[in-house]
Amino acid sequence: MLPGRRRFHGLGELKLLSLLVLTEAGTLWDLKEGRIPNALTAAGFCCGLVYQTAARGGAGLVLCLGSALLPVVLLGWLYYFRMIGAGDIKLLCAVGGFLTPGECFRCIVWTSFFGGILCLYLLYRKKSFWRRTACFLSYVREYARTKEWKPYRENALEEDRFCFAVPVLLGTLCYLGGIY
């Protein structure tokens, strides 16, 4: 081997590379098309399942399924009200397939943190804080009054939407960089 060249160390590096490719592809697709393909998230989940099983045996199967369900449990209500898209949750589920439940939880926390920062930045840049706050409060009041479900994003302007795959990528990069 040449000096200064690193060798491939197996499953750990394959896991990191897979997570990087999965989240970058999902983000680029979402930015370009406004959606994340099911084939990408399904392939990512399958890769996570294979990784967990190869790395941990039968326990890896349980870890993979538990970690992949965690985003649905924690963020499913945001999808129910259509505050985020199904593709965003499925992308997090695919990422979770590679992680332990604790790592997946921290990834969701970091993703939410970056999502909040991005949202605040966009509110500031577009000077839409008061308009978006009034829209949100109106939505909550209407739901509390009628108990009738309506998609939150139904009345949102296109300029008020942002690609949540970007915070998913940033949260995953924090994992890849060893922050958690």
Write the layout of secondary structure elements.
Layout: H1 11-33, H2 38-56, H3 58-80, H4 86-96, H5 101-125, H6 129-146, H7 165-176
Helix pairs in contact: 1-2, 1-7, 2-3, 2-4, 3-4, 3-5, 5-7
Principal-axis shape:
elongated
Q: Look at the structure and give the mean pLDDT.
A: 90
How do the SSEs run, as a string of H and E?
HHHHHHH
**Portion in beta strands:** under 5%
Number of helices: 7
Number of domains: 1
Please outline the major beta sheet: none
What characteristics describe this protein?
180 residues, mainly alpha, single chain
Structure notes:
It is a single chain. With 180 residues, the chain is mainly alpha-helical. It has one domain (11-124, 163-176). Helices cover 73% and strands 0% of the residues. The chain has seven helices and no strands. The longest helix has 25 residues, at 101-125.
